[in-house]
Design a protein that fits this description.
Order of helices and strands: EHHEEEHEEEEEHEHEEEH
Strand content: 25-35%
Radius of gyration: 17 Å
CATH architecture: 3-Layer(aba) Sandwich
Largest sheet: 9 strands, mixed
Number of domains: 1
Number of helices: 6
Structural class: alpha/beta
Distance between the termini: 35 Å
CATH topology: Rossmann fold
CATH class: Alpha Beta
Length: 208
């Protein structure tokens, strides 16, 4: 599917199985979310723009490269917090802002309760971070918030997506690339991804 990138990396597939295991404790769950986020970031940043940079090695001058794009990270609270450190490991210069949304359990629609974006956009690319792309409600709403704020290029990084969430994002924001570790079978009748891994926020923070 155009604009949807599902990692086939063996390390991601291995780590994803650890996440799915109901016996994986929160401390291990958080560690593996961070590791998968690092690997997804590596794959999703292959098209970042570079500019030349001159340095001196211990032996000679060298004309190398550095990132020209300034990057912003927008984790969707609270589950998206677990992905931030992994991406920062790869791009430590990235700025981090937060969007807080919760899902109304009756309507399954997102409700915004927190927005910590700066007044103006000054980055070239934003990464929306959320482990689960289920109904797509939170992701599509966050993408619209970030667009209205003035972001240029936007990408979504997630661990597991449902076909319904992908369809919602492609319909609402066909210009946003989606990078995920897996696409699962479906949503159940209360909007959880099946087989999925349960509630990513609860499993990261030992709640629920």
């Amino acid at each position: 599917m155009e604009g949807v990138y599902v990692s086939a990396h063996p390390l991601i597939r291995h780590k994803l199985t650890v996440l799915r295991d109901v016996t994986t404790p929160p401390i291990k769950f958080r560690q593996v979310v961070r590791e998968i986020s690092m690997l997804l970031c590596y794959e999703a940043t292959q098209d970042l723009v570079l500019k030349g940079k001159h340095v001196d090695t211990p032996l000679a001058p060298y004309n190398g490269d550095e990132l020209a794009d300034r990057m912003g990270l927008v984790p969707i609270l609270r589950a998206g917090l677990g992905m931030v450190d992994g991406v920062l490991e790869m791009v430590p210069e990235a700025e981090v802002w937060h969007i807080g949304l919760y899902r109304d359990e009756e309507t399954l629609r997102p409700v915004e309760y927190y927005n910590k974006l700066p007044e103006e956009s000054h980055v070239q690319i934003c990464f929306i971070l959320d482990p689960m792309l289920a109904t797509g409600g939170s992701a599509t709403a966050t993408a619209q918030i970030v667009k209205d704020w003035g972001a240029g290029r936007i990408k979504f990084l997630g661990v597991i997506a449902a076909p319904e969430g992908i369809a919602a994002m492609r319909e609402a924001h066909p210009d946003i690339d989606l990078h995920v570790a897996a696409i699962d079978d479906r949503l159940n009748d209360v909007g959880f991804i099946v087989p999925g891994l349960g509630d990513a926020g609860d499993r990261q923070f030992g709640t629920g």
